[in-house]
Amino acid sequence: MTAVASRPGPAPSPVKTQVSTWHTISPLVVALFAAAAAYAVHRLFIGTSLGQTIDTAALQGGDIDHPRVSEVLGRTLNGTRLVVLAGVCLLAAAFGALRRRMDLALAAGFLVVAANVATQQLKAGLERPLLDGVPMPNSWPSGHATAAASAAFVLVLVFPRAMRGMVGLAGAGYVAIVSVATVWAEWHRPSDAIAALFIVLACGSLALFGVRLARRGGPSRSLQLPNRLVMICLGIAAALSVAGAVFGMASVAVSERALPELVSDRFAFLTGTAGILAATAVTFIVWVRLTAAEPAPAPPAPAPARTRPAVPARSSTKSSVKTSAKPATKPSAEQGAKS
Questions:
Q1: Which segments cross the bilayer (predicted)?
Q2: Whole-structure pTM value
Q3: Where does residue 306 fall: left (phi above 0), alpha (psi -120 to 50 degrees), or beta otherwise?
């Protein structure tokens, strides 16, 4: 008998995950919401007399005499220099280039330049109306908070996906300390730092939208969710700080309008600190979630293996002769009798 050669089947194609439209445009939606949040902060704390009063009370209540707290805030604020942060941003862009992700390197540069330029232009172009009786120049938004947040954001962006959660958690802690330190030093009001965080989130989301738009339609691996422990920590911090900020602002508002001296200036400062912590936690939750969901490029498909055709089995001549000589069935007894 001869063996029939079987045809080799088609090589299995690599699994491809098509990036959805929502995944592409979600950073643009986040950018719009972040810009709207920054505008709402300006309208509430700069455009109303009650908002200015609460903001200024938090600024004037930052006279903390605790030596350890003052040392941490002072060193963090003095170490936050634009030259150092610019170096960090350049290293982040270089790291992205070394990973052969020039799109992330360009996005990091856009994030830093756009956020800091927008902050300086807003600070120079906007005016602060005198509604709280404290004549002070406009300081909205905070340049130090913008620089610190933009540096932390680019590190989260260019690092590998497995490390972005931990980098984001460390960056959130650093940004929170810098932002609180600016209020403690009476350089900025809490709304200045909060608005700076939303501006950085808006610029970073626009940069990420450009990255996803450029990679639209290509194959990708499955999406990866951020570190669950990091998100739980940031979520708990956000929930507690939001509750503290809402309760504190309501108490300060009652103290300023109905019951004088209901709360102290220190309480107002702690309320502003809670607001800064809430904004920091929320913005980093959104940013870590956006960057962790970015799909990595798929590996190149392997070349199909060459298969040799099966060789027919050679049959023996003797076996074929013997096979043909034998009858298919035994003769019956009636046939034997006739012969």
A1: 21-41, 79-97, 104-122, 142-159, 166-187, 193-211, 232-255, 267-288
A2: 0.79
A3: beta
